[in-house]
Amino acid sequence: MEERFKFLDLLKAYAVVMMIQGHTLSAVLEPEAKQTFFYQFLHILRGLTAPAFLIASGCGLAFSLCRMKNQKTQDILKKRITRILPILIAGYFLHLPRFSLYQLLTQTSGEEIAQLFQCDILQTIGWTILILQVFLIFIKEKRIIISSSIIVLLLILYFTPAVNRSISSPNFLTQLLTTKFGSGFPLFPFSAYLIFGLIFGLVFNEFYARIEIRRLSILIFISGIIFFVFSFLIKLENFNLFYFRTGLLLMLISLFLPFEHKSGKVLDFFVIIGQESFLIYIFHLVIVYGSALNKGFVYYWKEELDTFTSTMLALGLIYLMLLLGYVWHHFKNRKPVVSKVLRNTLFALLFVEFVTNL
């Protein structure tokens, strides 16, 4: 299966738009305005963005397993590490308290170290895929992968409260596991969404070749409704929210799936946005929250702007980020060598600055 599925890119494009508006409004909108029904509704939609990215990443892993099943293990590992390493580097770069290796080693406080090791969406994607890939070296049978993944997913959700209670101090490992010390999306419970994406992708791959798109989208929509309803029936901590989010996202996927074999300017535009979601994710966070190199919206207008101004700022940033993703996509496709040189030169300059800056 060589094709790239449009529904995954559309899912990520949806997540990109919701993510930008959510982060921008959360950062700059005054507290009183956050009590409105409309903001709370947007907040619920924003809550789907991280699970959407994680499920899409899990699906991508599943589809790559199908494509690379006849390749050597060492080649698979090499490709996987090559793709995951930039994700992890970007994730930890966004949490750097100081853009200086010397200062990081000699002047960093305990709080800043805890900040550096915080686990957000990129770290969860990177570490979960690497851990899964280790197990997938030894497990080749698809049915065993699916059944064992279901067990691991349920165990992660079940033991999340116990993990949170058992951790008492922040360090590299504990920051990967709990939200107690500032991590936004630790492995417990958020790796469960990526594992769900792996399961969904493997099952989807089996049905895709045998069932027409329309019937398949109906099956996925019904599955989403079942998950959604079940979320209100189950009382176990973490399980209800997991089923609530995955149910809504399954219904959303079912709406995107019929576009799989269609084309058009608007559709193709959002497919491109989904493909460039990694770039957009990094740039919008740097603009909204800042980094070790710059100050963001939150520094200048933290919860100070009214509804109209905040909305205009969010819409402006959405437009800017979509434009960035679209332009970069076409540039790197038309000038692949030049784009790689520019990208690698930027990385090299940042690395030299980080190492030599005192």
Strand content: under 5%
Order of helices and strands: HHHHHHHHHHHHHHHHH
Radius of gyration: 21 Å
Spans with pLDDT under 50 lasting ≥5 residues?
A: none
Number of helical elements:
17
Major sheet details: none
Number of separate structural domains: 2
Whole-number average pLDDT?
A: 95
**Terminal-residue CA separation:** 50 Å
Could you say which overall geometry the principal axes of the C-alpha atoms support? globular
* SS class: mainly alpha
Task: Please give the number of β-strands.
Answer: 0
> What portion of residues is helical?
over 70%
Keywords for this structure?
358 residues; mainly alpha; 2 domains; 17 helices
Describe the structure.
The protein has 358 residues and is an all-alpha fold. It folds into 2 domains: 7-46 and 263-358, no CATH class; 48-210, no CATH class. Helix content is 77%, strand content 0%. The chain has 17 helices and no strands. The chain has helices spanning 6-28, 37-46, 49-67, 73-93, 101-106, 110-116, 121-138, 142-166, 172-177, 187-208, 213-233, 239-256, 265-275, 277-289, 297-301, 307-334, 336-356. α13 (265-275) crosses α16 (307-334). The protein is globular, with a radius of gyration of 21 Å. InterPro entries: Acyl_transf_3_dom. Pfam families: Acyl_transf_3 (PF01757). One of its GO terms (molecular function) is acyltransferase activity, transferring groups other than amino-acyl groups. Residues 6-325 form the Acyltransferase domain. This is DUF1624 domain-containing protein.
